[in-house]
Amino acid sequence: MIKFVFIKHTFxxxxxxxxxxxxxxxxxxxxxxxxxxxxKITIPEGTVLRVKSLSAxxxxxxxxxxxxxxxxxxxxxxxxSIVIKEGAIVNAYIESSEKAKGLGKEGSLKVQFNYxxxxxxxxxxxxxxxxxxxxxxxxxxxxxxxxxxSPLFLLKxxxxxxxxxxKMMEAYVSRDVIVNLK
Length: 182
Description:
The protein is of the alpha+beta class. It has two helices and 13 strands, in the order αββββββββββαβββ.
């Protein structure tokens, strides 16, 4: 009789253990499948991305090809999902830089944005803002002063083009990009 009770309890224990193991297996498979499901979101070409300068520079201090520091100013959200996080580094460089010159000719800068990274780590190619950043021209006043007062005013120099730390600019996504979100 003792053997029968022992076998009966052992059988019940094994049945319960098997149930628990199977339940854990099913739960793990369901959880793994859920974590493998990704949501694909497209960032359309032309999407505006607000960026800010992380350091100050001007047309006198930078040259063509120099790397400059920018970061994404605010999260980019599409269909309720964040695809680019605030603070993501923006790869940018100086495309052209011209120092201020005599006759009041102002300096100019053209910043080119290359790319930033999406939340899944993929590169998001960017194109630059429209036009150049220019300093303040003094050409008209320099010529007028030279005629009225003295030719030495022709040496009056224009202002350098400046980008201050924290200056807001816009970059544009240059092609459709698919971001995989979990």
